[in-house]
């Protein structure tokens, strides 16, 4: 398995804190000023990266009124695909300013391209990485084109079968690009908590020999923290400055206060995992001195025999271990003993 991947100098893998991505998506609500503010807010919350989406309505679909181009049910019920993407797109002419601003702030910005023209634009902007959306995992020509740029590629796996994931990975590796991160994802908006199936994160890493993580569409941050606890190396979460300013993705996006908690709590969770094995940390050394051990509870003279009533198993832990109680009973003292003296082998004949 690839043990680590580097994006803009930040190492990603099980040996490093989770890589937190704030997904801006359509939460700019059609305003470049809001897009810039979103980047700034996310950066101040402590994320590792902000992700946007690079497409136009015309590169996503066609302007067609046929029934199959209409969304039925869910968050975007009644929208025609073309109209939804027109509403949500991040104009190409914004990209240079957004990338430059992120660079000024010292935070990573990259994007999800939805066709080859978007990849070309992002290459001109020297994007440090790419994201492939769940819906595009089956677009093998696009994945091969992205992979050919020899940058890290993060792929969401929502809706995908094991066969489809393998086909996407094969396409990447045919381009000699093994810088792959797979994100477990439930493509429902918002996703029900009880359908999260976080155990799949470990299966993805093991079965596909890649670094794995979570693209989280549930409400709140609990599931992202739980995912970190079972080994997610990347957490992606939709982010908005203010969800009351309704936009296409606002209903399943978190606000700044939640994003700060996400960054803090996933880091603490990762810190708490530690490593396997039974070596005890030095932090426990002081407590260890207050374990139970065997002490003398009566004054005794040299030459006397120790009886059960002369000793007790008590705290602190400076005497012999409790398991030696029977070995001590019946032994002869070679020196005087006072109440409160710890037992030790050198006081016996």
Description:
This protein is α/β, with parallel strands linked by helices. It has 2 domains: 14-55 and 90-273, Aldolase class I (TIM Barrel); 284-347, Type Iii Antifreeze Protein Isoform Hplc 12 (Alpha-Beta Complex). It has helices spanning 32-45, 57-60, 81-88, 95-105, 116-124, 140-147, 162-174, 200-208, 222-229, 256-273, 285-288, 325-328; strands at 5-7, 10-12, 19-23, 49-54, 108-113, 130-132, 153-156, 180-185, 211-216, 234-238, 293-296, 311-314. Strand 9 (211-216), helix 9 (222-229) and strand 10 form a beta-alpha-beta unit. The chain starts with a strand and ends in a 21-residue tail after the last helix.
Q: Name the helicity range.
A: 25-40%
Could you give the order of the helices and strands? EEEHEHHHEHEHEHEHEHEHHEEH
Q: Tell me the name of the CATH class of the largest domain.
A: Alpha Beta
**Strand order across the largest sheet:** 5-4-3-10-9-8-7-6
Which of globular, elongated, flat, extended, rod-shaped describes the shape?
elongated
Query: What's the number of extended β-strand segments?
Result: 12
Structural class: alpha/beta
The parts where pLDDT drops under 50 for at least 5 residues are none
Task: Round the Cα radius of gyration to an integer and report it.
Answer: 30 Å
β-strand amount: 15-25%
Spell out the CATH superfamily of the largest domain: Aldolase class I
Number of helical runs? 12
Describe the biggest sheet?
Answer: 8 strands, parallel
Q: What would the average pLDDT be, to the nearest integer?
A: 95
